Amino acid sequence: MSHALQNARMTQTFGFLLLPGFGLLSYASATEPLRAANLLSGQPHYDFKCFSMDGAAVVSSSGAIIPCQRLDHSCLHTLLVCAGGNPATLGSAAIYSALRELSRIGVRIGGISGGPYLLAAAGLLDGRDFTIHWEHAAALIEAFPQLSPREARFVLDGNRITCGGGVAPLDMMYALIADHMGSDFARRVSDWYLHVGVAKPTAPQRASAAERFHVNHPALLKILEQMERTIERPLTRSSMAAYANISQRHLDRLFSQRLRMGYSEASRKIRLDHARRLLQQSSLSISEIAFATGFSSAGHFSRCYMATFGKRPKSDRN
Predict the structure, then answer these.
(1) Can you give the pLDDT at residue 9?
(2) CA separation (Å) from 292 to 182, 223, 278?
(3) What is the separation of C-alpha 88 from the centre of its chain, rounded to a whole number of angstroms?
(4) Other residues' Cβ atoms within 10 Å of the Cβ of residue 311
(5) Could you tell me if 122 and 173 lie in one domain?
(6) pLDDT for 104-143, tens place per residue?
(7) Rounded to whole angstroms, how far apart are CA atoms 164 and 30?
(8) Number of domains forming the structure of the chain
(9) SS3 for 60?
């Protein structure tokens, strides 16, 4: 008997630990394929339960209310932590302890969107290959500098599974169902949801730099991508020109003609956008965020932030 057929005889119970403000689209993209698999096969191959730490219903980012039961250890095969908003504020000693205990007894543990942040805080991603939604990646790296999330739609690393969220869980569930019941059946499930273009795990989470910045000049793209990689220690014009193998005069011309702004303005905008994500997605102090985004002082950072966004950093955090 094939591995897929042997697996298909087993019912797998998935638990979803929902945190306030979790993404409804991410949750639906993970749960609906399980429902469709049972419907298409006519057999209960999957069961799924929704949990909260106190058993109360949880409100999603869109206001939808999902009934939950108290988290327990009842025959779970997999537990997926679903979090959005600011995951740094959602964890607790009780959650971390429960996740570690479930891992200890052999439950496969995973996270969706901001969920991997809580796994990291529980110490469950040390030495692991994993991903997280790109919006939460900066906050995770600042909080846990020993960890390095991959820019991927999802990552399966043994008994750890992580996913960037959004519609990416559809791709991840295809892979999990294919492993459990075979790729032909997984394709039937994907077709059920008109999900004909199943993405590879390593597919990007967001648009390319060319699409995000609306430019296609190779040297300018190289510089912009390097700006995003060196936010904490921004490079000077001369260093960046040498990096792109162009003159400083040509660098200035590229920024002026193609971005309608100067080099310093573009660098500051990239760093301030990153700072805004840290303000909204992490518990770092404003001073820590200022230095993490290449500003010489919290005062200078606040003035630049106010000039760009029309509000002070503290107001944006609130």
Answers:
(1) 59
(2) 46, 20, 9
(3) 13
(4) 12
(5) yes
(6) 999 999 999 999 999 999 999 999 999 999 999 999 999 9
(7) 12
(8) 2
(9) coil
